[in-house]
Amino acid sequence: MEQSALKMFHVEQKGETMKILDQFDVAVIGAGHAGIEAAVASAKRGCKTALFTISLDQIGNMPCNPAIGGSAKGHLVREIDALGGVMGKAADACCIQMRMLNLSKGASVHSPRAQEDRRAYHALTKKLCEETANLQVIQAEIADIRMEENKVTDVINSFGGVYLCKAVVICAGTFLNGRVYIGKQSQESGPDASIPSRYLSDSLRQSGITLRRFKTGTPCRVHRRSIDYTLLTPQTGDKNPLPFSFEHECGSVRNDAICYIANTNEETHRVIRENLSESPLYSGLIHGIGPRYCPSIEDKVVRFTERKQHQIFVEPTGIDTDEMYLGGFSTSLPEDVQRKMLQTVKGFKHIEIMRSAYAIEYDCINPVCLLHTLAFRDYQGLYAAGQFNGTSGYEEAAAQGLIAGINASAYVLGDDPLELPRSSSYIGTLIDDLVTKGTDDPYRMMTARSEYRLSLRHATADARLTPIGYRYGLISEERWAKFNEKTARIQNAVEQIRHKTVHPSEQLNQYLKASDTSELTQAVKMDSLLRRPQVELEPLTKAVGIDLNLAGEEAAEVSLQIKYEQYIERQNQQNEHRSQLEKVKLPVGIDYSKIHGISSEAAEKLTKHQPEHLAQAAAISGISPADISILMTWLKAGGATHE
Amino acid sequence: METIAAISTPNAPGGIAMIRISGPDAVQIAAKVFRPANGQDITRMHGYTCAYGSISDGETLLDDAVLTVFRAPHSFTGEDTAEITCHGGIYVTKRILQLVFAAGAMPAGAGEFTKRAFLNGKLSLTQAEAVMDVIRAEGEFALRQATLARDGRLGKEMRALTDRLVGTLAALSYWMDDAEECPPELDPDTLQRNLSQIREQMFSLSAHYQNGRILREGIRTVLLGLPNAGKSSVMNWLCGSERSIVTEIPGTTRDVVREYVKIDDFTLILSDTAGIRETGNQIEAIGISQAKREAEQADLIFYVVDASVGLSDYDRELLEQLSDRAVAVLWNKTDLPAVPAPELPFPVIQCAAPSERSTEKIFAALNRLFSEIRFAGVPSVLNERQNQLILRAISYIDRAADGLKQGIPLDLLYTDLELAAKQLQEIEGEHIADETVEAVFSQFCVGK
Questions:
Q1: B135-148 burial, b if ≥16 CB within 10 A, otherwise e?
Q2: I want to staple A520 with a disulfide (CB 3.0 to 4.6 A). Which of A126, A504, A558, B100 is the partner?
């Protein structure tokens, strides 16, 4: 049936001469979190850009949780902002509650999270796109991406209108052949009852792109008044919270919403178990693979039988609405069962469901067919980002969208492409994981995925990425100047601390004693003193009597640089081998079977994967260190140029 | 780039041996093990210069040596290089190499010096294929070893160890990443216990390496006993030649003398040591402390007693100290009017060293002491490199355990454990980060 959809589309167009409606440098398909970043970046960099969306009322939608950030995701948002992307600023502007997570667990895993007003976020990002020069926002369902000799030429909307373009970024989210399930009932649908994309999958398949099915789900939305909050645990925002954007001041975001925590109980679990046969997942109706990091409540109950309760996070979806989101409670059980389950939860006795929970199945690619630029390996001018690449989450999508947008425009403009190494960022790690290993379920970022965790603290995102953003024209001169001043102040302070010799004094020893650490008997370097876990920078500078001339968050940053320095050095030593390999590029189209000394298994796998550099080759299963050594020797001997 | 080291002279007894250390830290590492006679700062030596000095393991002098320093790019490999030339036979040279590893070098793979020389442009392009052949051979050998290891007992233990470490990482990662599910606080005591168990498992793996080494290289055997108990004549009996100087004067053997001896399918690396006794003689005192040191490193101790004199209090005291070691007591000089051998917790071999012809008695004792190793059927294919990786992993675990006590932040603790796991990853070829993520998903109820 799916195979015939595009044929149907073309039959419908038959007899009509296709009309060329417009001409663009870059066409972005989909205006979710990936599409917005891609389109705005491309337009800002000077490319005439189109942003296509099935509905203008769906731009920047949050069809799942009304929140941005969270563990590792907060890092991604800070990095997007550091590069000059949209998400950090938009999330700050529409924030209704802000918290820093993981505060007790070490600075590298501190992660900001914001509760968002989802309608405000939609309105703001829509307006932002509308106001961006070089960017046209167009409501259309793109049905076909056409190529000549594997090079993008144009896209066609579902009414046959043609838009010529040099590059396309696919940010189709969960729209491709979207099918929504509630219990055993299902219907064609995009997220939040939108129109799905019905033709584009076939167009891609006809071009030779392999698609697969993933699934994700979302919980119910319920009415604010139907919950007894006295039985729930409230959760408020932090005092004076740090915003996502490096351009925003501490405490500048709205922060007055309250979230609540409820709990399932054994009765809830009994209802779920009794109705498992009604689930499209457990009855085998859904074949798509769901996200392990965001399991449905029935998954949690089945897989973790020992847990007597699971948390439900009750979160407002905005200021001017009574819809409340039930985090942690996604399900695809039938609507009557949803009601029954919820009624067993303390405080939910009179629950009013406004939107039912559902599962959605959609087409996506296995991202190993992409390069680190997020371009398709086998096609020129074709890029992809977001859930279409097999990820989950707004932040993961936006991060990819930004890189794909930068690279699509670089392709058109003839600039150097941007490939972020793993050591640079969570964004680089995310993309490298995707294109090197692929993913078997919707990919979610975690701090454990990065071997450079200690140097990828959220607060260093600007130091790591803003120079890159500036190089690609996404950072204003004003911001660049401020950034350089900040960098200089921090560097200056760090140097001062490194070179300062501290002599024992009464005031200092008083402070040391009060901090439960040994007093000084002889002069030491100030940095060694600061490295003691008990010693903090501000009281230390006071006791020592120097002024480091730092503003806002900078003191914390300086202190962490010194305290983490030695650990980071060790971390980098361990990773040095990998970063060396990352620098050794492998040309495209090598016939590995012709390389003397390489095993036939390795040759076959390398020829199939066509890795971009040696580090990527080494990450392929079955490639031995000896194979890598041989490749290195072969490259050095000029092997690649003899091909 | 790692700094690597290996013995670059043939693995056979000879008058001179050379250890090559190559890489960015070569000279710093050499400075940690080599003590120059004139006290100069080794790290400031220029290329193409030498220093005379000595190499000691702790208090024990191992050998006199000459250190030659080459500065990049003017060396064979094109990197900073330090070459230690010593007189030791195989045994002493290997011990010096161990010191070099302990100072931070990694064992060089086969052909690795040549490969580096090639990559640094020191060899011509036509040699590339030869280099590839060497690497290929090494790769295939390593693969065969790894396959063997995976199927065997070692493989299982390795797997169990990796699983345990990954499990701990997963628990930490879950706790770090899953801020919102509010998992229960990690209990530092449980974590500490876990770490010490992991550490124990690592030690037991490293012990396999010792067993494997015994099979491959031989049993490090030391002859101990009071002066004039007849150690040198035992040595000569076992070697079938006049190797040690045998005299009637107690304390003749001041240096350590070594021989390789094959007894059936056992190989002994035999050292005769100066007799142990309290002494005022300076030179002999050095020999004696070396003897004690040798005994600590040995796999097997032949404790020689003069049967005509019997067991002295000093003998009893020493044997008590050796109660947890592999010891065979040689009740020597039974051709003289002899005291009968007492009951001892060790195998006792009655012999009259100078006139003995057969080594059958020795073989019987070896069989008893090393049966486990001998009949376990080559459990160990850990090689030097793998053992070094495990020892490194242990040092990371130790630091993590220390950090835990001092209350360092969780992310730093995690990094140390991850580094430990990475050492195992190099042995097993698994990707620890992926495994940890898998373990998080399979063991914990994650996220919302």
A1: bbebbeebeeebee
A2: A504
